[in-house]
Amino acid sequence: MDESGVRSVTQSLDIVEIDTFALLEARYRGLGSLMAVASAGHEHGVSFGAIEPEELLGLPGIEELLGMYEIHLLADENRWDTIVVDLPASADALRMLQLPDTVAAYVERIWPLHARMVAGTGSDVRLTLVVAMIERVLAQIDSVRSLIVDSARTCATVVVTAEQLSVRDAERTLSAAALLGIGIDRVLVNKILPSLNSSSIGLVGAHPAVFWFERWRAAQLDVVAELRRRIGTVPIVEVEHAPGEPVGLGPLQEVADRLEPSSPERRAPGWGEQPSVVLESGGGLESVYAMRMLLPVVDSTTLGLGRVEDDLIVSADGRRRRITLASVLRRCVADSAELDGPFLVVRFRPNPDMWPL
Asked: Which residues of 13-52 are buried (b: 16+ CB within 10 A; e: fewer)?
């Protein structure tokens, strides 16, 4: 095992389990030491050294962000052809992937960049260190966010089971992924019952278990057909139920042999593409600009739009994304919005008070 915690399993397979608590503790202790030195001889009313690392664990998302940044560092080493990250269930995974945007927006709201710069250039050395540390954290968060939405490097595989509830869950997950700009390569439908061949049926005859088995398999195939109809833009791969839990390299290899390799090059067309802006018609104050954003499986009744200064807020299926507008759109007002097939199209017209003559 090397210093980064990577352990070699075979010649072409390494594994690593990231200890996010250890990362948090190590980073906090370094910051605490700096604060102690900078605070010597000064009374600021707050004792940073009195906070224990355990207390920081209560801050939502801290550990997950540190873990994602560690993955970013591993990816930048270019030691591996593919890095596979096993995420939790879809709802938790989406909250985790949205953390960089959430935390960056929160910091900017409670302590905007201009205020941090003023504070960081004052005479308080400790405050200067705090600002420097926050800027470093924000830079790390931005690097994580960039990796997540880089469709040339990152893609996601959604795993569901062949149940009716999975259809809606898959739609919500894919809708959120599209909203967040995450590339999707496929949906794996897990634990499909295998087809009974004639020899196996002959062994048991017309036993009730055979009819139960066939009805269950038929119901699963109906779910798969519904998934193909509802989310046709994404490849769907069926994975048969194994006779035993696939633990260990041998059984896992058998599962892998039945699957096509996953990579950004195989992602579903259009997924992971960021919003685009075009001049649709006119010129000057009569210009009409259109921003197009892929939302292929969105529930139109859940769509909502808002604007905060230079950002457009798009919400859908219980998720929200804050999109920084292109420079030309910052001098415009939103005029209309509509769903055009799989795209959300928002049209803008110049704001006369801000448009150059």
From this structure: ebeeebebeebbbebbeeebebbeebbeeeeeeeebeeee
> Buried (b) or exposed (e) across 167-199, using 16+ Cβ within 10 A?
bebbbbbbbbbbbbbbbbbbbbbbebbeeeeee
Give tens-digit pLDDT for 35-75.
Answer: 555 555 444 444 444 334 444 445 577 788 888 999 999 99
> How would you write 171-220 as a 3-class SS string?
HHHHHHHHHHCCCEEEEEEEEECCCCCHHHHHHHCCCHHHHHHHHHHHHH
Whole-angstrom Cα distance, residue 85 to residue 68? 10
- Top pLDDT among 4 and 89 is at 89
Query: Which residues pair with residue 240 across a beta bridge?
Result: 192
Q: Tokens representing 136?
A: 């470093």
Nearest to 274 by CA among 106, 145, 82, 93: 145
Work out the burial of residue 285: count CB atoms within 10 Å of its CB; fewer than 13 is exposed, 13-18 middle, 19 or more buried.
Answer: exposed
> 174-185, pLDDT tens digit by residue?
988 988 889 888
Q: Shortest CA distance to 275 belongs to which of 210, 337, 218?
A: 337
Taking alpha carbons only, the member of 68, 75, 54 closest to residue 98 is 68
